[in-house]
Amino acid sequence: MAKNLHFSKSSILFLAIHVFLVILSGRFTHASHFSKSIQGLEGSLKGQRVSGLNEVKRYLNRFGYLGYETADKHSIEDDDDEFDEGLESALKMYQKYYNLKVTGRLDSDTVKQMNVPRCGEPDALINGGNHVLHPQYAFFKNNAKWPPSKRHLTYTFNSTAKAVRMEILNATCYYAFKRWEAVTNFRFQEAPQGTKSDLVIGFHRGDHGDGTPFDGPGGVLAHAYSPTIGQLHYDADEKWSLSPKLTINQTDIVWVAMHEIGHLLGLNHSQVQNAIMFAYVKNGVTRRGLHPDDIRGIRALYAI
């Protein structure tokens, strides 16, 4: 059995004083391919044909705003650069969801929002969609959640790419699980490596076999699946750090852990910007506690 760790000031101190940056095998830039592609598209509007708009369509489709049958990038042709009515409608929906001025154009505020790194889980309600929306927080389709018999969840680690030291990942997840334990009746315990567990956490790079490939530095940071799938995947190409004081290019690994665990428990994205379950994670910013909206959401889902 895994060693029973005690949550204490020392574990918090461990998180506060250890800084770890991912050693990338290639580039150290934090700009994703999409971020580079969208820079020259600001100001585009319906009726125009602008090279690169296909990337915007793929982005909006991936996160639920276009409603194409597949989110695979090949579902949108490389020359699909018409700013058509569908793109305008999707942009308006995106702008409304993120409390931006609803213009239907690729204005500066919209481009700026799209450039922020984020979770890979879709946002919007499309044709019955994947979400049950509430004023702020959201659930997955059919209120997917763990059955009453599963309130003690075990977790293990399994990575296909090297990113952070094992003790860093272990301490990160331990801390994040404790935040959710404090506001629910769930308990989480690490299981011995190689044994079956309810949750599996790991670092991966690019196409890692689940149909939702990572995009390299920037862009999508991580993704996790609704209950009871139990998979949490970090993008190994990000600059992850535990430090309470991050540089502008670093991403808070603890914030992302708390967010993705929220997905594992059944919460989807919140429209509250300061909530852990908000989809976007700003580089250089740390968050180490749950927002009241996160707490209301998880307690509503499990009737606590």
* Cα radius of gyration in angstroms: 19 Å
**Count of alpha/pi helices:** 8
Spell the H/E element sequence: HHHHHEEEEHEEEEEEHEH
Largest sheet: 6 strands, mixed
The portion of residues forming beta strands comes to: 5-15%
Kindly state the mean pLDDT as a whole number? 87
Instruction: Give the low-confidence spans.
Output: 1-7, 9-30
Characterization of this structure:
- The chain has helices spanning 9-17, 33-38, 53-62, 85-97, 108-114, 166-181, 253-265, 292-301; strands at 118-119, 131-133, 138-140, 152-157, 187-190, 199-204, 220-224, 231-235, 240-241, 251-252, 267-268.
- The protein starts with 8 loop residues before the first helix and ends with a helix.
- The strands form three sheets. Strands 1-7-8-6-4-5 form a six-stranded mixed sheet, covered by helices on one side. Strands 2-3-11 form a three-stranded antiparallel sheet.
- The radius of gyration is 19 Å and the shape is globular.
- It has eight helices and eleven strands.
- The chain folds into two domains: 9-24 and 130-301, Collagenase (Catalytic Domain); 33-116, Muramoyl-pentapeptide Carboxypeptidase, domain 1.
- Helix 1 (9-17) packs across helix 6 (166-181) and helix 6 crosses helix 7.
- By secondary structure, the chain is of the alpha/beta class.
